[in-house]
Specification:
single chain, 383 residues, globular
Length: 383
Amino acid sequence: MKKLNLLFVTLFTLIQCNLAIHAQETNNLKYKNQDYHQAYIPKGDDVLKNNPVKNVILMIGDGMGLAHLVSGMYANHNELSITNIPTIGLIKTQSGDKFTTDSAASGTAYATGQKTHNGAIGVDMNDASIENIPEIVTQSKFVAGVVTTDNISGATPSAFFAHQKDRGMSKEILTDLPKSKLSFIAGGSDEHFTKVCPQYKQILAAQDFIILNDYKKISNNLKNAKIALVAFQKDVDSKHNGRGEFLPETTKNAIEFLNNKKAAGFFLMVEGAQIDKRAHENNFAGVIQEVLDFDKAVAEAVAFADKDKNTLVIVTADHETGGLSIKKGDIPQSALEGNFSSKGHTPIMVPIFAYGPSSDNFKGVMENNEVMKKIISVLIKQK
């Protein structure tokens, strides 16, 4: 009898746990937005298209497929700064060895112009180093920077400064950082750096970086030669956990920092990394919050392009995550219900938007590694 009672209690507990998990997942698939922002309306792409390109800002929404993007749009009064950009194309995301890419291979394709195997950071199919955009453009007196809401050693940002055969080699990736051609670095996290590379402050300082941990202090340090913002984990965590305005504010400051250098121009890569993380969790509400935050950063870049008139802004994704679709929606109420078919990446094409000089180069359907080649073509070869 005692065994039967124990069995009954165990089964009842399992059922309750499953119901609780199901309820949590269901709640994560519904979202009613109450945190709107004003979408930026570009001043006029046609006026800028024939201008020379001095600067390029490449913005990557990690895991951001079309459904992720339009979910954010519908939740924000049916408008985003991204969807206000008039020039659009599509990206094929396959890696060099897999139908479905990971962020490392895709990031490397964007950074180097070559497809490679999944897991690879800045190396080719045979694990030989490939020059990335910052390494190429700084030879022509440009400056370069990277901003991310991931760890700086994360797959996408590290593709723009490191050369390692596997994305899991965090210590080796961070060892590549001081040797990079970056003048501005921002991402996470002090806790991660301290664990993987306890001497990171001394190492970066030896390469003329001023090390900051608080993103709100960047604006007071813009005259330094190099800035390394190694944020505390809370400042690069999810929006739901209180990240605040890290991404849009740091993007704005990175643009100002690089633009004020006496250089031929600049290249900046900005990653909204947490879109992917929330999609891996099948957290629909979290995906929308992250897309809206990324959109604020895009608004900063496009507004600068309007003011500068020689800046090309490119907005895309490294791959789609979650196989997201939208089941139901009420635009006036900013209420949506989504559905995921996977907790991993998918091979679905992702959108690419371009604004400013030479934006027409990014129309149509293209492979992910073509983006880098087009960037170098308009930034270096036209000069």
